[in-house]
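Same chain as my last thread, 260 residues:
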Amino acid sequence: MNPAIETRNLSFAYKDREVLHDVSLSVEQGEMIGILGPNGSGKTTLLKILSAVLNGQGEVRLNDRDIEAYSRRDLSKLFAVVAQESSMNFPYTVAEVVLMGRASYHSPFALEGKKDLEVARATMELTDCLSFANRYLHELSGGEKQRVIIARALAQEPEILLLDEPSAFLDLKHQVQVFELLCRLNRERGMTIVAALHDLNLAALFFPRLVMLREGKIYRDGSPSEVLTEKTIDEVYGIRVRVEQDPVAGKPQLFICSAL
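reply #2:
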C-alpha cells in the first residue's frame, strides 16, 4: 500500500528565512500522527504545504501522485483542513458554514441535495454543535466556532484530515471530546490524520506516532515514549521536565520542574 502522504527533501523559506529544511516524512494510510515543536519550528508551514496552500522545494506526494497533478476540486475531496484561525466576513449560520464543506460535490450555484443535508447533520451531531445549527457563527464562543469548523471539514468526507491546533479555544471537556472523535474517525473510518499540536500530554495520550520538529528539521520521530523524553524536551523547548508513565494509559506524561 502506498503512503497517504510522502515528502522528500522538503524545504521552504519566507524570503531569506528558512522555515523547513530537508524534511522527508512518510505517513501511511490510516495513520494518526501528531506534529510537535515550539513556535517557529515549522509545524504550520508544513501543514500548509501538505494542503497545497504553499509550494515548497522538494517533493510532496498524496496517494503516490505528485500533489501538483491534482485539481483543486480533487484535492478538496481527498483532504480537509482545520486551520488555526478561521474568519468569515458574512453572517452565516452554523448549518450554512458546515454545508460549505459539500461544495466540491456539486456544481457552482447548485442547491444542496438530500445527501449534502444528511452529511452536514451527521457531522454536526459528531461535533456536538447540532443544538445551535441555526445560530450565526459570529454569535458563538471561540470553542463553539472551532467545533463548527471541524464539522465543516468532516462534511467534505475526506480521506485525510489536516489540523492545526484542533483544540485551540476549547475547554478541557471539549478538547478531550475532539481528540476522542479524531481517534474514532481514525479507527472506524480509517481516516489518515495529521495534526500540529502544542499540548504534549494530550498528544501523548491520543496520538500513536509523534514527529518533533526543531528549527525546521525532524528531530525525533516515533512513539510517544520514544519522542517525549526529558532530554528531548530540554533540547527542543529549553525547559526541564519530569516524565512519568501514566499508570492507566501507559503513556508518558510531562511535569514541569519549577525553578522556584
